[in-house]
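hey
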């Protein structure tokens, strides 16, 4: 099956009981048992719900894994995956990981005795120097948020295997439409489905896919034990969002190309970060491992004042956190999504006060460029 066909026909297409073409929203918490322990596969909706199951089957197919799981948020999915580890274990993460992931590693997992080290995973020698006898996993986001740094997933997978580590990839920015980390050797793929997978700024959700039955058993045990599951209505919204993921990602891609080429020639823009530009350091790797570069662009206008000025003047870009929806969004990571990262650390990473991040929507790119032209004057 080709990718756009799989978005429509993957997973469990339709309802076998009624023939409904759209998976029904099974708004049920419990299920009748014919006799003690005799049931149709569902007992209680924390353990399993047919609408959530349809979504979990679909994301499993799209990510080419063994088993999929849906959670109440991206962070709940990340928490569940991190719960695979024990006190005394050590995890290596990329240094410009999502702010919430940095926060959970340094403020929550640390209290539970799980250690973490942050390195630039675009250079696997750095990761190698961070390995300890108790290291259990390499966690990478690629491309990263907000600097769009690209880690070579196949190389990272080879290296992780050689060090006996699990490779966990946060695939939120690319989505399975552009990038399938499990096919490149990753063990676990994570999503904030709040972003491109939902795609319409109307649901908070997380997904995880694992590459083996053993990891599937372990993660299902944790999902059921800790309970951060996605409800049936939100599961249905994600199934609906996924149907148009291919069309949307292609539209985001076209617009992002237009906007990136406009910004890269603009005198008020000091630096631009977009993996689709040949000048981006991760361009060659992104080209090799992904089918598209995505709709996220960051650019530096030099100072916090100039950044605020742009944010005040834009019309079609909504000032808001989050990304990946049909409408274009704009933010200043240092003050918003990455505010939980200490200032010195932000500066070290290049997340300056003048850095603006845009999530390019699917409007007409002429309007977006006209808007940016006026705002950058
Ligand atoms: C938003 C985001 C998360 C967290 O997901 P929520 O759905 O907000 O809990 C994790 N990783 C990345 C890359 C994100 O953009």
């Amino acid at each position: 099956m080709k990718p756009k066909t799989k978005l429509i026909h993957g997973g469990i297409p339709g309802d076998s009981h009624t023939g409904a073409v759209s998976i029904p929203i099974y708004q049920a918490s419990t299920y009748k048992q014919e006799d003690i322990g005799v049931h149709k596969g569902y007992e209680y909706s924390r353990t399993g719900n047919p609408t959530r199951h349809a979504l979990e089957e679909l994301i499993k197919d799209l990510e080419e894994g063994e088993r999929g799981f849906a959670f109440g948020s991206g962070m709940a999915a990340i928490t569940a995956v991190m719960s695979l580890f024990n006190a005394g274990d050590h995890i290596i993460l990329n240094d410009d990981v999502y702010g919430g992931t940095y926060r959970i590693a340094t403020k929550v997992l640390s209290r539970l005795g799980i250690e973490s080290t942050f390195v630039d995973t675009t250079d696997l020698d750095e990761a190698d120097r961070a390995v300890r006898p108790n290291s259990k996993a390499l966690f990478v986001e690629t491309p990263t948020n907000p600097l769009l740094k690209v880690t070579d997933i196949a190389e990272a997978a080879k290296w992780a295997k050689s060090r006996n580590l699990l490779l966990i990839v946060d695939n939120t920015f690319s989505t399975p439409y552009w990038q399938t980390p499990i096919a490149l050797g990753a063990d676990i793929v994570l999503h904030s489905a709040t972003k491109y997978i939902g795609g319409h700024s109307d649901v908070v959700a997380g997904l995880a896919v694992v590459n083996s039955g053993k990891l599937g058993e372990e993660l299902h045990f944790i999902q059921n034990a800790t309970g951060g599951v996605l409800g049936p209505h939100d599961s249905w919204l994600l199934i609906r969002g996924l149907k148009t993921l291919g069309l949307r990602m292609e539209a985001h891609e076209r617009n992002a190309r237009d906007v990136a080429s406009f910004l890269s020639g603009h005198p008020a823009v000091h630096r631009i970060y977009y993996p689709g530009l040949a000048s981006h350091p991760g361009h060659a790797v992104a080209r090799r491992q992904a089918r598209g570069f995505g709709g996220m662009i960051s650019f530096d206008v030099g100072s916090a004042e100039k950044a605020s000025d742009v944010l005040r003047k834009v019309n079609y870009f909504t000032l808001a956190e989050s990304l990946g929806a049909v409408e274009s969004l704009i933010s200043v990571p240092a003050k918003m999504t990455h505010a939980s990262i200490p200032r010195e650390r932000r500066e070290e990473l290049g997340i300056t006060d003048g850095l603006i991040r845009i999530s390019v929507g699917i409007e007409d790119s002429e309007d977006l460029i006209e808007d940016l032209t006026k705002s950058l004057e």
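Residues 245-264 form the longest helix (20 residues). The chain has 14 helices and twelve strands.
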